[in-house]
Amino acid sequence: MNEYGKIIIKLDELIKKSNISKNKLSHKAEMQRTQINHYCKNEITRLDIDVLARICSVLNCTIADLLEFVPPQKDTEQ
């Protein structure tokens, strides 16, 4: 983790909770299956707000359901 923290994409978790297949999400959100896999594996370095909006719309979730900010861990030893 870097000094600023990181963003975790929780798409894989949401897909399982929504009981939707990646193929169906791919079709409804107008995304390629490989792109969905990259989001599920947190292999995205730049988020596309249009893609995020489509995912939220199809899965009927909020951006807070999809993304999580993990703050950097502070060193307790000084």
Primary descriptors:
elongated, mainly alpha, two-stranded antiparallel ribbon, 78 residues
Q: Total strand count, please?
A: 2
Distance between the termini: 19 Å
Overall pLDDT metric: 92
Number of helices: 5
Sheet having the most strands: 2 strands, antiparallel
Strand order of the largest sheet: 1-2
Radius of gyration: 14 Å
Q: Work out the strand percent.
A: 5-15%
Order of helices and strands: EHHHHHE
Give the overall shape, derived from the CA principal axes: elongated
**Structural class by secondary-structure content:** mainly alpha
Summarize the structure.
Helix content is 49%, strand content 10%. The protein has five helices and two strands. Strands 1-2 form a two-stranded antiparallel sheet.
Verbal overview:
It contains five helices and two strands. With 78 residues, it is mainly alpha-helical. The longest helix is centred in the last third of the chain and has 11 residues, at 49-59. The protein has helices spanning 11-18, 22-28, 33-40, 49-59, 63-66, and strands at residues 6-9, 67-70.
Which helices and strands, and how do they pair?
Blueprint (H helix, E strand, L loop, with lengths): L5 E4 L1 H8 L3 H7 L4 H8 L8 H11 L3 H4 E4 L8
